From TrEMBL:
This is Multiple sugar transport system substrate-binding protein. One of its GO terms (cellular component) is periplasmic space. Pfam families: SBP_bac_1 (PF01547). SUPFAM superfamilies: Periplasmic binding protein-like II (SSF53850). Gene3D superfamilies: Periplasmic binding protein-like II. It comes from the Bacteria. Belongs to the bacterial solute-binding protein 1 family. InterPro entries: Bact_solute-bd_prot1, SBP. Keywords: Cell membrane, Lipoprotein, Membrane, Palmitate, Signal, Sugar transport, Transport. CDD domains: PBP2_TMBP_like. The keyword Lipoprotein applies. Residues 1-25 form the signal peptide.
Length: 432
């Protein structure tokens, strides 16, 4: 059964939410939970950093005290697993990535169903229907609305226009062009990293998946792992070669933080990384004038970008679910998403793109307009398949990263690496 089949009735939820909002507008009270305390487990990424700048506004508006427990992404996941496996009430709200752990967490019963909250307990300005249908659908499993979308994102190619001009390199149209550009830049600028992307094993599938799909591959076929298909082997070889021959030293330890730091410091000519990192990449202003942004160039399978989004969820074990919902709806409201858009957080509400302040912000810098155009391409043509579409998706990502790293480090050739991964992945699939 597909995720799309599992979400029958989401449109009805959205319609009910709109009707419920109209009926309850005069009764809604932002101070309904005055004096209560809720705890938010935050992933210290750009969305959380931006929204928490307005923490005092939330507390003044609601009278609710917001306690924040914030970690880097991998540490946040470890903390969340510990709390949820213990069925502890110490966390009320957490950030989740439906494309990664949504199916797994839903099967474990870790999410509070937010459908009734969105229908019966919303402020008049909330506009649930304004959230992108695809993102709401991606956060819905077995008719449970597991979270409210926070953003839309995917990996994009950030490149140095000045370096390309100096080295006589054109913006690549294909993955073959990308590899040729990296080779030219390495010769032209030997002290600069020509191409960088994620190499850290559990984080790597986010960027590698775009290569896989552009090559015409997929993770599964006929109920089995397809990591040894011709297209998948080509993707592994291309990705590993780019990082091995043109990437930075220690790239197997690289995730979003290292990529952003390297590119922002002017040490990388190309960086394939999250669109969500725009504000962090541009911090300090040094890259504002010399950066261009495009989707990953096409491969034999065309252009099939990775498109995902974070969501904000309430724990099924929370004793403060109603108060927690007030933070969720405040943080995901049209007003807040319009504010966060000015920090480079691409809004999940299409209407936010028409906001005059957002349009003015985009027009201030060429790179912002290119970022927005690339995101529009992701929204129109992207896929959320990052790792295997199974309950154990997070574990599947480890084996994908392991296969790519084996080739990158020279421990195995592509055929050996994918065969070893397939054995583990097929066993994982069989456990479903």
């Amino acid at each position: 059964m597909t995720k799309r089949q599992l979400v029958t009735g989401v449109a009805g939820v959205a319609l009910s939410a709109a009707l419920g909002t109209q009926a309850l507008a005069q009764d809604f009270d932002w101070k309904a939970h005055d004096g209560e305390t809720i705890t938010f487990l935050a992933n210290n990424n750009p969305w959380a950093t931006s929204v928490l700048k307005y923490k005092d506004d939330f507390e003044a508006k609601t009278g609710i005290t917001l306690a924040v427990d914030s970690y880097q992404e991998q540490q946040m996941r470890q903390r969340l697993m510990t709390v949820m496996n213990a069925r502890s009430d110490e966390i009320d709200i957490f950030m989740t990535l439906p494309s990664r752990e949504g199916m797994q967490f839903a099967a474990a019963g870790w999410y509070n169903d937010l459908a009734e909250h969105a229908k019966d307990d919303v402020s008049p300005e909330y506009d649930f229907d304004g959230l992108g249908d695809a993102l709401v659908e991606a956060a819905t499993f077995d008719n449970v609305l597991t979270g409210i979308p926070l953003n839309i994102e995917g990996p994009l190619l950030y490149y140095r226009k000045d370096v390309f001009a100096e080295c006589g390199v054109e913006v690549p149209d294909t993955l073959a062009d990308l590899q040729a550009a990296a080779e030219t830049i390495k010769s032209c600028k030997p002290d600069m990293t020509a191409f960088a992307s994620r190499g850290l094993k559990p984080a790597l599938p986010y960027t590698f998946s775009n290569f896989l799909h552009n090559m015409g591959g997929s993770y599964m076929a006929d109920g089995r792992s397809a990591l040894c298909s011709d297209a998948a082997q080509s993707a592994i070889d291309t990705y590993a070669t780019l990082l091995r021959d043109y990437g930075p030293p220690g790239v197997v330890n690289y995730s979003f933080y290292q990529l952003t730091s390297l590119y922002r410091a002017g040490q990388a000519a190309m960086s394939f990384q999250s669109s969500n990192e725009l504000s962090a990449v541009m911090e300090g202003g040094e890259r504002l004038e010399d950066t261009g942004i495009v989707p990953l160039p096409a491969g034999d399978g065309g252009s099939v970008p990775t498109t995902i989004g974070w969501a904000l969820s309430v724990s099924a074990f929370s004793d403060n679910a109603d108060a927690a919902w007030y933070f969720v709806q405040w943080a995901t409201s049209p007003e807040m998403q319009a504010k966060l858009a000015l920090d480079g957080i691409a809004p999940p509400r299409a209407g936010a793109a028409d906001d005059p302040d957002y349009q003015a912000w985009l027009a201030e810098q060429t790179v912002r307009g290119e970022w927005n155009a690339a995101l529009a391409d992701l929204a129109a043509t992207g896929t959320s398949e990052v790792g295997y579409p199974i309950v154990q998706n997070p574990e599947s990502r480890e084996y994908i990263g392991q296969a790519v790293n084996a080739v990158l480090l020279g421990d195995s050739d592509v055929a050996e690496a994918c065969a070893a991964a397939n054995e583990q992945l097929d066993a994982l699939i069989a456990r479903q």
